[in-house]
Amino acid sequence: MPLPLSPVLRTxxxxxxxxxxxxxxxxxxxxxxxxxxxxxxxxxxxxPAIMQAxxxxxxxxxxxxxxxxxxxxxxxxxxxxARRFGVELDADHVVPTLGSKEAIFxxxxxxxxxxxxxxxxxxxxxxxxxxERGALFAGARAERLPLLERNGFLPDxxxxxxxxxxxxxxxxxxxxxxxxxxxxxLALYERLAGLAREHGFVLASDEAYSELWFExxxxxxxxxxxxTNVAVFNTLSKRSSMTGYRCGFVAGDPELVAxxxxxxxxxxxxxxxxxxxxxxxxWSDDAHVERARSAYARKRAxxxxxxxxxGVRVAGSEATMYLWxxxxxxxxxxxxxxxxxxxxxxxAPGTFLGPSGEGYVRFALVPTEEECARGVELLARAx
Length: 383
Ligand SMILES: Cc1ncc(COP(=O)(O)O)c(C=O)c1O
What we know:
This protein is an alpha/beta fold. It is built from 14 helices and 13 strands. It has a seven-stranded mixed beta sheet with strand order 2-8-7-6-5-3-4, sandwiched between helices. It has a four-stranded antiparallel beta sheet with strand order 9-10-13-12. A two-stranded parallel sheet has the order 1-11. The protein is globular and about 55 Å long. Pyridoxal-5'-phosphate binds near residues 40, 99, 174, 178 and 243.
């Protein structure tokens, strides 16, 4: 008898970035050079004060961490939100998460209610694959809202049928956006939050890149006058280059927070307390974030200049660590990415992030400045 296997798992393709890493590994194994602009895993160093707090947080006896998280971490998040967005956030309405990925993945399970006709999750594409994967594993219908350059990479809400809003349990948006680098105006959150209350769905705003900006500070859905039906997800992964620590949070509507607090003890994904103590230090300091932003700005300027010299167009890309680069002369995403890889430059084909990514590739500005400079030399030959 064959092993039973979830049909969602059976029919799902390999996680796109696993494929990308395999392509890089194969090239390296053949002794060839790769400058890796593929996955958005920051290689900036983590601030020494944060590392020290982690070490200091290790105790002789460490029991299970409480699902609600340490008060000092929740207070540090609330204080950051006040400094950064000028908003009041009750520390009791902040839920620490093990990075934001697990919380994003499982959120559909918290809000989906097919028996009440709430069986649909809306998400934007091209985008982070986890909104859709989490929705499908929760048994939801997933509907994609395309992000097109002609709309400033914002979803066309007028094109969504009334019936879809009625069936929606959850609507995901992500600004500053991975992969397009576009930012949203507060008006988008206002309109979506209004629709959420009118039709009874949850607006989930994934703000993982809110701190990686260059000219203008991005806004947050936390700034909405009314946060009913709204949940905001953020993380230290990109802000503080702490992908390996795994620490993020969800905050927003107290009723949603209460639901999460009922749900999360069953899954056991609260960060270790020593990570939470390091995270409290990270949210309490802005200087290291300023330094990381400056490093990204320098790398961004280097790449923008190299691409402009070759007449390659960069779309969106106002914020985040990504450049969303238009393929030259109607070349497809996969063909352009393969051509760059032949010259040692690894980028993600836009189609890895959704069908509307066709015609673009994504550069993650994660190599060091020195590696980026080498990447620019390789690009000059490739383009
Ligand atoms: C849009 C977006 N949201 C969330 C995440 C999750 O980050 P983490 O789980 O490291 O907090 C990522 C990671 O790449 C991302 O790109």
